[in-house]
Design a protein that fits this description.
By secondary structure, this protein is mostly beta strands. Strands 1, 2, 3 and 6 form a four-stranded antiparallel beta sheet that branches. A four-stranded antiparallel beta sheet has the order 5-4-7-8. It is built from three helices and 14 strands. The radius of gyration is 19 Å and the shape is globular. The longest helix is centred in the N-terminal third of the chain and has 10 residues.
Length: 231
């Protein structure tokens, strides 16, 4: 995970105030329907890991890299700036990062939070250049209900995949790496599909995790999985 440069921070920092204005209803979220997809996975310390993908349409941005600021707040709560004695975030999660132009037209990131109801704010802005002095900025808001995956038999989100590849590093990623590559787990790199409709000749690939299953006599999970296809 690369540290943000001064130029990166200068690009991202103005997004804090925009998110606070949207949360306070002084500004409306941007009326742009960028494709959005999220998933839920069990995590440590009572949290749920929430990877998400945003589709970046070809005409949405013209100047790269993109700066992203993410802030997760309790549903309906304001998202004020931290006070002078509260330098640490007073939110369940916040994050800032930079993205180069995505080759596949999508960017992915993640956050972690306990089960509950949240407002997720994602602000994106272009890099200012002499050729591009007025950067485009978007603030997206999504309401998410993070499920409890710990207390009883539970299933993660169902991941419908475009492809699944082997991650040659063959090791567990640390948390910062996991934020950068939220769909790499267990030595596998997953690419979720934005599609939900498949033709007869298409390949349907899915993966998911079952949590808190009891063990059978052979010490394997005592679980039976049935698939029912419908539309």
């Amino acid at each position: 995970h690369e540290q943000l440069t001064v130029e990166d921070w200068n690009q991202v920092r103005p997004l804090y105030a925009l998110v606070e204005q949207v949360a306070a209803k002084q500004l409306a979220p941007t009326d742009v329907a960028l494709p959005w997809q999220h998933h839920f996975l069990n995590a440590e310390a009572g949290n749920v890991f929430v990877p998400f993908t945003i589709g970046i349409q070809a005409a949405a941005f013209t100047s790269y890299p993109l700066g992203m600021y993410l802030r997760v707040v309790n549903r309906g709560a304001p998202a004020p700036a931290p006070g002078p004695r509260d330098a640490l975030a007073q939110y369940p999660f916040e994050d800032a990062t930079i993205f180069d132009r995505p080759e596949d037209g999508r960017i992915s990131r993640a956050f972690a939070a306990p089960p509950g109801n949240y407002d997720v704010y994602v602000a994106l802005t272009e890099r200012t250049t002499p050729e591009h002095p007025t950067p485009r900025t978007l603030v997206i808001k999504h309401e998410l209900t993070v499920p409890d995956l710990k207390s009883s038999l539970a299933v993660s989100s169902i991941f419908v995949l475009d492809k699944s590849e082997i991650d040659s590093r063959n090791r567990r990623l640390n948390f910062e790496e996991q934020l950068d590559e939220p769909y790499v787990w267990w030595g596998t790199k997953l690419t979720p599909s934005f599609r939900t409709t498949f033709g007869r000749a298409d390949k349907l690939s899915v993966t998911f995790v079952v949590y808190n299953a009891s063990s059978a006599v052979d010490d394997k999970p005592d679980v039976e999985v049935q698939y029912v296809f419908y539309r």
